[in-house]
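Hello forum,

I keep getting stuck at the same step: I have a sequence, I want structure tokens, and every attempt I make locally crashes halfway through. Rather than fight my setup again tonight, could one of you with a working pipeline run this one for me? It's a single chain of 58 residues.
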Amino acid sequence: MNKDQVKGRVEEAKGKVKQVAGKAVGNRELERKGRLQKAGGKIQAGYGDTKEEIKDSI
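Reply #2:
Ran it on my machine without issues. Output:
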């Protein structure tokens, strides 16, 4: 597991927490920020996954 995978998954988790908290308290802005952070984390984790696959195939 590389650092992009780890950082991405941490960002996904933080985004999910923000999204759920925003929804729970009715704060649409916090919910939106959480969705964006979660999506960004997913992209970063996917990038890390791809790097790992390439490294393993070599």
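The mean pLDDT is 97. If your local run keeps crashing, start a new thread with the error log.
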